[in-house]
Amino acid sequence: MSSTLGTLYLVPTPLDFGTAGPAPDLQDVLPLGVIRRAAALDFWIAENAKTARAFLKRVDAVVPLASPLQSLQIVELPRAQKGAAKGTPQASAPDLSALLKPALEGHDLGLVSEAGLPAVADPGAALVQAAHAQRVPVVTLPGASSLLLALAASGLNGQSFAFVGYLPVETAARGARIRELEALSRRSAQTQLMIETPYRNEALLGALVAHLQANTRVSISCGLTLASGFTRTDTVAAWKAKPSALPDDVPVVFSLLAG
Amino acid sequence: MSSTLGTLYLVPTPLDFGTAGPAPDLQDVLPLGVIRRAAALDFWIAENAKTARAFLKRVDAVVPLASPLQSLQIVELPRAQKGAAKGTPQASAPDLSALLKPALEGHDLGLVSEAGLPAVADPGAALVQAAHAQRVPVVTLPGASSLLLALAASGLNGQSFAFVGYLPVETAARGARIRELEALSRRSAQTQLMIETPYRNEALLGALVAHLQANTRVSISCGLTLASGFTRTDTVAAWKAKPSALPDDVPVVFSLLAG
Question: Domain containing B117 — which CATH number?
Fold first, then answer.
């Protein structure tokens, strides 16, 4: 690899994006080393430029940015990528190598998503793929993924698990998919994780409880890293006996393990 | 839930355990908020008590421990759990509720694994399951999992992925499992992640390259968060044309996505 190439840093961000109430202090949720690295970068690629600027303002309050926020280059990932169906392969992605120009010219480059680890449960992987194709070194800085915080807190199997993204919205297709995930989970004792648009949180929990076997365990983690956050894991029978209300304004991670 | 219960905190640790060379500064890899919370806890459950003490010494150097290290209660997870086969369900786990006694008496309790997020790719989930059964609140503090840092850096599909633990060691069974994982990956464009005992890193990479199709992509991430760390993602054809030597003394995360 040429020493003149910059590095593509995958920069984790807090999980509180878009949630109500006071955001945690940045140092409560991100390592100082990550904040320092972010403060030093002049070139950025973002899932959403507005969110990226809000993040960099929080960085600046802890470690002053090397260059003024207004002078940073923040380029958004192409919209077509943002709308890509979850779970589709990246092979047909448009050519993103133009976005890597700063790295090819020797500048370090940061990638950020809306929340958490970039290129996980978001469209950033196509850019990382392009970086590997150009032999641009890729480094993920240490940070949290809501999926794995939820998995840890669930008490479900953490030695075999899968993230399957979003479930179908249509009722019959959703029910069929839930039963399919339960069968997959039973076959290899594999925890199945999924996410939902916040206003459909209640509907997804209802569908899980309606379609799964009584002894299958379902876990929900709401508002991870927020003071109001909580995790509940119970059998479907217990969820039926004692339902929980779910917030419709914070991200929830759902998981199941067949009993 | 009773207000007299303590909380079970799942405390992330650095990923550099057992690796040679200088360890990163704790503040480079863990949020200050996590270090502060760890410094305040008097009761711990650990995968390995010696490693937990070494971690707490690093904590103490940043935020002085509330109580002297010698006076902390550090209890190891039962050995039987440590040797549990990867991917087995937790349902047959022994009763771990006795370990939760401090939380039932109102004290906050920390759980740590050898490296990274507890209860992910380690035997801690059984304890978390016991906590939920006793209605002890469970909170995962924000930290990195090597699996997801590797997934992000791989550029493989981050919208559908599975962690399958260790592969069989026996040659024929290993080859069959590799072909099975490739078929699973192809069916749903799902990235498959796995780990190996470090001294078998080279052998696993060799087996992947030998058994997978030429256009399947294989990614390896070595020494995550270390200065010497790197990620390489290439097609099997490219791995064959230009092999990489793998270190035998640092953890490596392997992943594949069928082409």
Answer: 3.40.1010.10
